[in-house]
Amino acid sequence: FCRNYIYKKGVEHMSNTVCLCKGVSEETIVEAIKNGAKTFDEVSEKTGAGTGFCHASRCKETILKLIDENK
User: How many helices (DSSP H) and strands (DSSP E) are in the chain?
Assistant: First the structure.
């Protein structure tokens, strides 16, 4: 169960969460990349993504894809 929700006009919407363990959104990761993070470790350091219970087993591929797409 993901705890990262956005409440808008009384309707509950799930944000695009990449790291479920830490609740880090795609937007947060892309922002870190645009602000200079070039590797998984740099994104992880800036956002906390990949540092949770699963040790990035669920989110690392998506983060690497986002880095590649947002160079």
Answer: 3, 4
